[in-house]
Amino acid sequence: MNKRIMISAGEASGDMHAANFVKALHNIDSSIEVYGMGSEQLRDAGANLLIDCSDIAVVGLVEVIANYRKIVSALNILKESLRNDPPDLLILVDYQEFNFKLAETAKKLGIKVLFYIGPQVWAWRQHRVHKIGKRIDMMAVILPFEEKFYEGANVPVRFVGNPLVDEAKPNRDKQSCLDDYLLNNNSPIVGLFPGSRRSEIKRVLPIQLAAAEKLLEKQADLQFVLPVASTLNKAEFSDCLEKYSYLNVKLVKDLTYNVMQCCDAIITASGTATLEIALMGIPNCITYRIAPLSYAILKRMVKIDNIGLVNIVAEKEIVKEFIQKQAQPQLIANEIYKILSDETYRNNMTNELSKVREKLGKTGGAKNVAELALEILNS
């Protein structure tokens, strides 16, 4: 009988990584059946979705509580599937808390577990690393320093390279994208990247739009573009954009990297996008805001100085972070204006971003994970 893999990816970035893994896997062995939780990209890659993750992609403790029933329902469906129709391998892609619970069920059932893009316990709750080791068979990590961290706790681990090194590239030329987005090359273009979760659209996008308003006061010819993540649709942006209609923000449903290549600077939410933008070499700043209670709790638990992945990999702040109370439109606008107007400042940032690319390793991340999965399946 054909081997079967259940995969669990809970947001846009995880959906993308899961999809690329499936493509790489089927290039090696097309007979393996893949099913589970993800969204549009994973479905298009050939996986059968039991759960569409679009409705449960949230961040922050308060936000999770607000969507608790949906999240628990999705978790229970996947647990029942593990019990009633166990796969040969469970692959968990990011989405840490949810997948950690799923791993516990799988382990009790004797199902092999591969955690891809594992929990960032090096940033907070480091003691959990030992629990993770009891619930998984292998950790596939994508940041170079993670391998040493997990090895120190005797957790089976392999650095597979960062999949973004392969993924972060456009599939169309810049001019055709500019034409499609109704943008021109004669005036600077600023990207607004609020994230892929509905909670981020609610909390982060209004700040970015207000910053764009301040920027327009400084430079009247600016253009703004906003990519729509695969887990969202354009209608979900209408309320926010209506208030700022005079900004003429171009809302785009396209490959994110196609949008990035058109930008002279980007205001981005924290998350995977910070590394993607770094790999594309676009100067940027990070802005983020979650529910005050969530932030107050997390601030006491986090053990690192920066939250932007680009800065974590660089081991210093190369991109300015405007987090929570510091996420002020005027401060963000000042930083983007400096990027656009100060050539030396811009070049220095671009140079530092290129060093981050070097640290993330060589190409072949998705293929490496596929080969690791096959190794576990056949062991």
Write the layout of secondary structure elements.
Elements: E1 4-9, H1 12-28, E2 33-38, H2 40-44, E3 48-52, H3 61-66, H4 68-84, E4 89-93, H5 96-108, E5 112-116, H6 129-135, E6 138-141, H7 146-152, E7 157-159, H8 164-167, H9 174-180, E8 189-193, H10 198-203, H11 205-218, E9 223-227, H12 238-243, E10 250-252, H13 256-260, E11 265-268, H14 272-280, E12 284-288, H15 292-301, H16 309-314, E13 321-323, H17 329-341, H18 343-359, H19 365-377
Parallel strand pairs: 1-2, 1-4, 2-3, 4-5, 5-6, 6-7, 8-9, 8-11, 9-10, 11-12, 12-13
Helix pairs in contact: 1-19, 4-5, 11-17
Structure characterization notes:
This protein is of the alpha/beta class. It has 2 domains: 4-163 and 364-377, Rossmann fold; 174-359, Glycogen Phosphorylase B (Rossmann fold). The protein contains 19 helices and 13 strands. It has helices at residues 12-28, 40-44, 61-66, 68-84, 96-108, 129-135, 146-152, 164-167, 174-180, 198-203, 205-218, 238-243, 256-260, 272-280, 292-301, 309-314, 329-341, 343-359, 365-377, and strands at 4-9, 33-38, 48-52, 89-93, 112-116, 138-141, 157-159, 189-193, 223-227, 250-252, 265-268, 284-288, 321-323. Strands 3-2-1-4-5-6-7 form a 7-stranded parallel sheet, with helices on both faces. Strands 10-9-8-11-12-13 form a 6-stranded parallel sheet, with helices on both faces. Helix 2 links the parallel strand 2 (33-38) and strand 3. Helix 4 runs parallel beside helix 5 (96-108) and helix 11 (205-218) crosses helix 17. The longest helix has 17 residues, at 12-28. The mean pLDDT is 89.
